[in-house]
Design a protein that fits this description.
single chain, 346 residues, four-stranded mixed β-sheet, 7 helices, globular
Length: 346
């Protein structure tokens, strides 16, 4: 029999009060978002994201199908506890998180064992890539705007699909027809899937992780894209790849991590410091008339278009820079600062 952690009566009262606040908030959002998701063919979405400051959670809904299913699904929740700016007793924190998770499952109407709780610390290095062993893996397929993606709710900090980039993926799909597309720091290649679906002439996906490249190939297979000459998966450090390749593309997606010090490369990436170097390197591989989409979730990055440089052989081209962030924040994200995004054209 599991022993419940002992917490003070005042803490229990505060937890009960916050649980009711959360219940009211989730009930309102769930009523709206589940209808919105059904209308738009969205199988996973953010239900809550620190809407109430004293409840620092992100709660995501996933309607999962198994690998062989095209129809029936089961609903799961991912509950993320953000790192607090102060220390809290571990037992009290565990009791609090259990109470909030219970409320979330009750509002959504699922068993408690279909909720996965994670703690989001400030990431450095390769945290995103490190697998976290759990007793039972929770995996499946989610639908997103007529596409299918494999997700893992239990074994990694992230699930394999960054939901905040859903609108930008659709933009890429709408612009990809007949174009050569490059997806850098491709993760599980969701942008690449959209580009292929949009009729891209070729799609190159670059990442340093074998795990995520294999995951990306799986996503391509799920969506019926099997031509590995037309759709290439390239294991490489992005900066090194851009230095060495002579190829050019019509559309480039650059969505780097904020920081990376992977042992697989000699370079340390600090996007707040290095962003313009990466962007300029990408511009050097754009065909005339090409487009670069650069996105970051760093709030500290100071974007200065005066640091951008056209390659020497394209000095006659005009550089266009537009902050398109508002049009890339999806309906289900209340946090309008979840990322920033620029459209850069030559």
């Amino acid at each position: 029999m599991n022993q419940q952690p002992m917490v003070s009566s005042s803490s229990l009262e505060k937890t009960a009060y916050q649980a009711q606040l959360l219940r009211n908030r989730l009930a309102k959002r769930f009523q709206h978002l589940r209808k919105w998701a059904r209308r738009n063919g969205v199988g996973c979405y953010r239900l809550y994201d620190k809407d109430i400051p004293e409840i620092p959670l992100a709660i995501d809904v996933f309607n999962l199908q198994n690998d062989n299913s095209q129809g029936d699904f089961e609903t799961y929740l991912r509950v993320y506890l953000y790192q607090r700016p102060y220390e809290r007793d571990e037992k009290e924190e565990m009791s609090w998180l259990e109470a909030m998770t219970q409320v979330a499952t009750q509002v959504v109407g699922i068993p408690e064992n279909r909720a996965v709780s994670k703690t989001r610390m400030r990431q450095r290095g390769t945290d995103q890539y490190e697998k976290q062993e759990t007793r039972d893996s929770i995996t499946g397929i989610v639908q997103e705007q007529n596409h299918r993606f494999f997700v893992n709710l239990s074994n990694y900090l992230d699930t394999g699909l960054f939901m905040d980039h859903r609108p930008l993926r659709k933009i890429v799909e709408n612009e990809a027809n007949g174009k050569a597309v490059l997806n850098l720091f491709c993760y599980t290649a969701s942008f690449s899937v959209y580009a292929a679906a949009g009729g891209a002439q070729k799609v190159d996906s670059v990442d340093l992780s074998n795990t995520y490249l294999a995951w990306g190939e799986r996503n391509f297979t799920l969506n019926g894209f099997a031509d590995r000459e037309r759709y290439r998966f390239i294991r490489s450090d992005v900066a090194e790849f851009l230095r060495e390749t002579r190829d050019k593309w019509d559309l480039v997606v650059l969505d780097p991590p904020t920081f990376s010090n992977s042992k697989k490369t000699r370079d340390t990436l600090d996007i707040n410091r290095d962003w313009h170097k990466l962007v300029n390197a990408c511009l050097g591989h754009l065909n005339p008339g090409g487009t670069l989409y650069f996105s970051t979730n760093s709030r500290q990055l100071h974007f200065d278009e005066n640091l951008l440089r056209l390659p020497n052989n394209q000095v006659s081209c005009e550089l266009g820079v537009k902050d398109i962030t508002p049009s890339t924040i999806p309906e289900d994200f209340r946090n309008q600062k979840i990322h920033r995004c620029w459209k850069i054209t030559i």
